[in-house]
Amino acid sequence: MKKLFLALMMAAGVAQAEDVLHIYNWNNYLAPETVKRFEASCKCRVVQDYYGAMEEMLAKLSAGAKGYDIAVPTGFAIPPLSKQNLLQGLDLAKVPNVKNINPAFMNSKFDPGNKYSLPYSFTTTLLGYNQNKLKELGVSADSWSLIFDPVILAKIKGKVTVLDDSREVFAAALMYNGFSANSTNPDELKKAQETIIKAKPYWAAFNGQSYIKELTVGNIWVAHGYSSDMFQAVADAKAAKRPFVVNYGLQKEGNTMSVDSMVVLKNAPRPDLAYKFMNFILEGKNAADLTNLIGVGNPNLAAVPFVKADIKSIPSVFPDAQVMKKLQQLNALEGKQLRELNKLWTKVKTSK
Amino acid sequence: MHSKQSKWLWAAAIFVYGFLYVPLIIVVAYSFNDSKLNAEWVGFTFKWYGLLIHNEQMLVAARNSLIIAVVTSFCATVLGTLAGLAMHKYKLRVLPILVLTPIAIPEILMGVALLIFFVMLNMTLGMVSVTLAHIAFCIGFVAIVVRSRLQGMDEALVEAARDLGATPIQAFRLVTMPLIMPGIIAGALMAFTLSIDDFVITFFTAGAGASTLPLQIYSMIRIAVTPEVNAISTLLMLLTLTLILIASKVAPSALRAK
Q1: Which of A56, A320, B93, B246 makes a 20 to 30 Å CA pair with A255?
Q2: Cβ contact A49–B57 (<8 Å)
Q3: pLDDT tens digits, residue range A21-43?
Q4: 3-state secondary structure string, chain A?
Q5: Testing the interface with A: which of B223, B225, B229 to mutate, by most A Cβ within 10 A?
Q6: pTM of this prediction exceeds 0.90
Q7: Nearest C-alpha of chain A: how many angstroms from B159?
């Protein structure tokens, strides 16, 4: 038994002695074929560990967890990571493929000058819908009025879900009223709150978990959610041969967008492999794999020729300059603003 | 005896057990469903189990889980048995408190505390840190089981052995040990089960490349509960149930002593 214990510990030790790149990532956020190609090119192994939420990743890294080389945080998580001195300053000279990135995604407010991060992929928050039902009812999903205007909502009462996320729901209501998604002006927020409270009786639920399934099954006709999830819902509905088509699209008043970026951790065991990986993933063909797999937006211009034609034409995946102007990233809120928003949100949640 | 009261009791029992088991049955059923949606029955298939066998991440997570559980149950059984013996023999007030605290405190506190502790020691998180954490919270469970077994043992047996010339070591090896063996085995099985199933403490103490099955499943359900998740959950349930059944056969009193 003692021998077995020793053997196991040895096995664990030996496994760490080879060339391994550790990536801390969302699940299903790196195409398996990309991993295989990278492993062949760097003669190393890629090991991924996953988190289910940004807060999780922040908690773990803040507590001082070591051993990861690369993490893939969402925009708002970059400042807290860099403030806590958990990230390495990037030497962009080691990543020649930076030239492939769409300039619109560089130099974001979360990381001015790309000191620590390089964009990896992005999703937009929009409306997914049951195309047949909306056609039948003669309503359109190209405006936020679909989930906020009681006149339109009357036709789809109880068949709408919105995200269970105060930031996202308020952003949509703010844009619907013609304000900035990041507005912290009390009057504007108040107005957005009124909009939400008026619409709430028509909604079935606040749902951030199972709306893919609800749309695909047909229980819900309109869902407020993320573009990558909607892509999944469309594919699932096709695969399950549903008697209707699920589709999704951007709203004319504007949408929020969240960009996930690659960062190299301060205590990365193998920064050399991390740089290799970043440069590799920024090659068009490799960047395209992820978009082809899960339909996320791609900040990499060189990826376009390698993306499947049916995905290429989706505006929420490859927005043109016009659409790009209407996409806003949400700021991280400071303490007081967050408390204010939470107050407004609590009232929304408890309103009848 | 079919009084009104017993009918109500039956109804309550059926309701409670239904509430506990129907969801599990649904998960098991959908793991054989030939559709990606957990919504309607399309047809029977083993496809999802086939996918699992070829899912490298799953296999690595399963391997990690098993290695951790085997090492944990071995170490926690040795240490927990010693703790159980000590708690039985020396009636110190402080001993049970020390041994049993890890059982009583919320898992999340223990997870955070262990994480901070490992970081303080400047230890790289990985398989070793998870295993140490699991051993720490399993010792108490083993100790309880072993102690309850000892309490049911007739002290006169050991005394008789000593009177007949056995050394303390011999008396333990030849008399005490065989008598409490069912408790030790039950404790080991319990430690194994707890280790395989634990999420919270593992989440905080797992490092790069040490994902276990529960962590893997958790990161997958963010997107959607796929049939693959149902399949792996079914297998995990099967394993856990089997071990619990064996444990309750070996030492029926052990599980009641909790």
Answers
A1: A56
A2: no
A3: 999 999 889 999 999 999 999 99
A4: CHHHHHHHHHHHHHHCCCCEEEEEEECCCCCHHHHHHHHHHHCCEEEEEEECCHHHHHHHHHCCCCCCCEECCEHHHHHHHHHCCCECCCCHHHCHHHHHECHHHCCCCCCHHHCCEEEEEEEEEEEEEEHHHHHHHCCCCCCCHHHHCHHHHHHHCCCEEECCCHHHHHHHHHHHCCCCCCCCCHHHHHHHHHHHHHHHHHCCEECCCCHHHHHHHCCCCEEEEEHHHHHHHHHHHHHCCCCCCEEEECCCCCEEEEEEEEEEECCCCCHHHHHHHHHHHCCHHHHHHHHHHHCCECCEHHHHHHCCHHHHCCCCCCCCHHHHHCEEECCCCCHHHHHHHHHHHHHHHHCC
A5: B223
A6: no
A7: 31
